[in-house]
Amino acid sequence: MIRKIGFVIASLIVTGMCAQDGSISPYSYFGLGDIREVGTVENQMMGDIGVYADSIHVNLKNPAAYSKLGVSGRDDFGITTYTAGLSRKQLRFKSFAEEQSSAVINLDYLALALTLKEGLGLGFGLRPYSSVGYNFEDLRGVEGSRILNQYSGEGGLNKVFVSAGYELLKDVSIGVTVNYNFGTIESLRVQSTEGVQFGAKDRRESRIGGFDLNYALNYTPAIDKDHTLYTSLRVNTQANLSARNTQQIGSFALSSNQDIEIIDVNLERQGLKDTGVKIPTTGTLGIGYGENLKWFLGAEYSYQQLGDYENEFLSSDNLVYNNASTFALGGFITPDRNSFESFFKRVTYRAGLRYAKTGMVINNKDVNNLGITFGLGLPLGRSFSNLNLGFELGRRGTSAADLIEESYFKINLGLSLSEQWFRKRRIN
């Protein structure tokens, strides 16, 4: 037990030290990058809803769900769960004139959860919040004096989190997650003009850090002997992050690509050395109905007043933020969890649908995202552990107004390893 906890802690440290280039999307140019804050593979394959809670799965989206971990009504209720998720995303980019394809592999989360006592659970881990990874060009003007702008960027933000869930009353659970956000975003703009032997560079770096909180309230009354109504209210509070910024500008020779002169910009004089980054509050309502560990169907609606987003140093002229919202629908079915005759009856089948208005308006065009999800939860022996395989088909953006339409196919692989860590001694 102790060795396993030590291994997970060491893994978290190593993972945190290794920055991920988790995006290849041109939309990661905007704001803090491509938002990648998702739930476990189990959640993602149900449209990424977080209203459902059970005794054997970690729910990263809903801290109140930690109160359900463990085998209720037994002396050996305690469960420790290790969970990790990987994904491979294949993207096709389509503009008005051409198409391109690429792919990226990411670690999506790494976490540990355990039961402290019946009705009280604790979890901690690491997961990304956003990723920056883009490289594109913009050529304008008439032949002979055209101006070429080349944009590239990398980095992003990660979250280290600690969560706790507690069953306050019968059928009523509360929870809180404390997130520490950290990371660096780097961007480079290179400009050159036809017929001119020198070009210009603008390199910017922003080191960002700060806390935010995620509160949850679950109400799960029994409708009858077998069926339960699942409801949740979650509020991810406004994140007021701090950023330490640097900027360099200079010139270079086009023939050799050698820098000629690079100057550190005095951002302190402009009031941009230390700035704030405000990520507005997100509220989520969820409702569902089902039979514990057998079947479930639920829906969620999230709303964020993204028009209040602020990042003075990393801003874009052609981007406006409107309020963002997401509607998701999903569920699962396990034909017979205890079947001895058929492995496939013990498999959990999941599916979902998600439509998001991202709140980004670029060149006066809304950028929306539609995804269809489905997958399998494969039991590992007769234990509580399982291997989760998921798929997502989706489309984001549009090829109109000089924008890019992204079509993507995402493969998710998640591992959930659970064991009972406390057994009361019995004397025969």
Automatic annotation (TrEMBL):
Q: Which lineage do the record's taxonomy fields give for this organism?
A: Bacteria, Pseudomonadati, Bacteroidota, Flavobacteriia, Flavobacteriales
Signal peptide annotation = 1-19
Keywords annotated in UniProt = Signal
The reply to whether Signal figures as a keyword in the UniProt entry is yes
Q: What is this protein called?
A: Long-chain fatty acid transport protein
Which species is listed as the source?
A: Pricia antarctica
